């Protein structure tokens, strides 16, 4: 059986998701050494949680789970050499950067933009819903921030993000990060290596 000639896997992430921060920092490097390319798929957890009857993050709804998560985040960031500062507000609204990530999904600078937004949220405790914060990140990437944000806020692109979130629901995604390999889902940063190994061993041309 022949391997796919252009292997890809879908990385579904949410900018408010703590574990998405860690996975986003790791996935490109881990995929590259295996010859796999990453399809970056931003979406919104709000509608996903609403479909499950939640009006807030489960880490807020269940305090014991939240306390564990923040301690776990500190351990994992130390393990992977990532800066970490618990956000003063959680979860933060990642709508604007998600719209930008949808609009520019194929751009070469998109992975660095994603990582920069995550760092702003989970390492620098900055409000990623603010235009000024996102503009600063775009400018640091030598981009025209005003133009990018204007196009990201177009009615067409807003609809694109809405449809992408609906697609996440259709795939059975219930949290972030989630890696999708040929409709097989792997939830969580700790499933990154497993998803890559699954791809290498199971995804073949029929």
Across the major sheet, the strand order is: 2-1-3-4
- Please report which band the strand proportion falls in: under 5%, 5-15%, 15-25%, 25-35%, 35-45% or over 45%: 5-15%
Categorize the overall geometry. globular
Low-confidence blocks of residues: 1-5
Radius of gyration: 17 Å
CATH hierarchy, class: Alpha Beta
Compute the number of structural domains.
Answer: 1
Q: What characterizes the major β-sheet?
A: 4 strands, mixed
Given helix and strand content, the structural type is alpha+beta
Write down the CATH topology. Glutaredoxin
Strand tally is 4
Number of alpha- plus pi-helical segments: 10
Q: Can you write the helix and strand succession as a string?
A: EHEHHHHHHHHEEH
What percentage of residues falls in helices of 4 or more residues? 40-55%
The average pLDDT is 93
Oligomerization state: single chain
Distance from first to last alpha carbon: 7 Å
Second CATH tier, the architecture: 3-Layer(aba) Sandwich
CATH evolutionary superfamily: Glutaredoxin
